[in-house]
């Protein structure tokens, strides 16, 4: 007995099914990659927004520090000119009151900046 050595032929229906499966897998992969690129882009945009807002906060902090050092030097200059303890105590009281008011305002500004940063980052992340 001799075996037929012509080879195995894949039926047309099997080839059509395999081709459709590969096409569907390719489409699913392309859709996945598109969604991935979009997500990465949104994250990058959010990071850029947060970075810009952080730079703004850093500039404010540096400005506030400069204001406080300047106020401390002015206070020191006035203090050395005081002629008695009562004047020194009044200067100290005024300096502390002014600094507390300034710190309160700066805390509000920091809070507003942080709220804005979160809001902007959220908007950037939700962009389509």
UniProtKB/TrEMBL annotation:
Tell me where the transmembrane regions lie: none
Q: Where is the Phasin domain?
A: 31-127
Segment Disordered: which positions?
106-128
Would you say which domain of life the source belongs to? Bacteria
- What are the coiled-coil residue ranges? none
Q: Which Pfam families match?
A: Phasin_2 (PF09361)
> What name is this protein filed under?
Phasin
Naturally occurring in which organism (per UniProt): Roseibium alexandrii (strain DSM 17067 / NCIMB 14079 / DFL-11)
